[in-house]
Write a structure and sequence with these properties.
Blueprint (H helix, E strand, L loop, with lengths): L15 H16 L3 H17 L13 E3 L4 E11 L5 E10 L6 E3 L4 E9 L11 H4 L2 E7 L5 E8 L6 E3 L6 E2 L4 E5 L3 E7 L3 E3 L6 E2 L5 E5 L1
Antiparallel strand pairs: 1-14, 2-3, 2-13, 3-11, 4-10, 5-6, 5-9, 6-7, 7-11, 8-10, 12-14
Helix pairs in contact: 1-2
Length: 217
């Protein structure tokens, strides 16, 4: 079935409690006469609005293209072992998201979700390669119409403490469609089975749902 997400929200729904809590605390502190102190929770609300922003994205419709699942910087591009589903070495592109990047994650391809694995772990800084092995993460296996397997792994970072993954097994995804979010600093790894021609370089900035990471051949 098709996964339903609200693509129209300018702020991800996970941000609402943080925004409301900050505004509420600021309001009551002002009522109690602590005007200067009230700026602290008010500032937190403003930061939460910024952090949970959800800008509209238009995915390229080039055949066999794989788009980035996250905003951020490419920190790895090459061969790596995919341990959850493929159980073999394949191409991997890793994108690190800082606190200042959009943290809404998007599907890299059109396809059907065939498996989801959540793995508890550590909270090593997500820009380090060993985060792909040791950190808390959620792996999503997507099978394309022509039978190719893509695995997207959401990885928690140093201060991240919650991974949100929306789809369930059997859901259909469109390239660039919202599929989750990671709170406060994180990383996304995308594994592509088979021949894959990469189109990005290390340290290149990419945008979720828009930047083409490469093409399946």
């Amino acid at each position: 079935m098709n996964l339903k997400t609200d693509e129209g929200n300018i702020i991800a729904k996970e941000g609402y409690p943080f925004i409301a809590a900050g505004l509420g605390a600021a309001f009551f502190l002002r009522l109690l006469g602590f005007r200067r102190v009230s700026y602290i929770p008010f500032g937190f609300s403003l930061f939460s609005m910024y952090f949970f922003r959800n800008p509209k994205r238009t995915a390229p419709q080039l055949k066999n293209s794989v788009v980035s699942g996250a905003d951020g910087v490419v920190v790895f591009s090459g061969e790596a072992y995919e341990r959850f589903f493929l159980k073999k070495y394949t191409k991997r592109v890793s994108v690190f998201m800082s606190l200042f990047d959009v943290h809404v994650n998007r599907s890299p391809v059109d396809g059907v979700v065939e498996g989801i694995v959540y793995n508890k772990g550590k909270f090593i800084s997500a820009n380090k390669d060993k985060a792909s092995l040791e950190n808390e993460q959620c792996a999503i296996k997507i099978r394309t119409e022509d039978g190719r397997n893509i695995v997207m792994v959401q990885i928690a970072g140093l201060v991240a403490r919650r991974i949100e993954t929306y789809p369930q097994v059997g859901d259909s995804l469109k390239r660039g469609q919202i599929l989750g979010l990671i709170r406060f600093g994180s990383r996304v790894d995308i594994y592509v089975e088979g021949d894959f021609e990469e189109a990005v370089k290390l340290k290149e900035r990419v945008r979720a749902g828009e930047t083409i990471l490469g093409f399946m051949r």
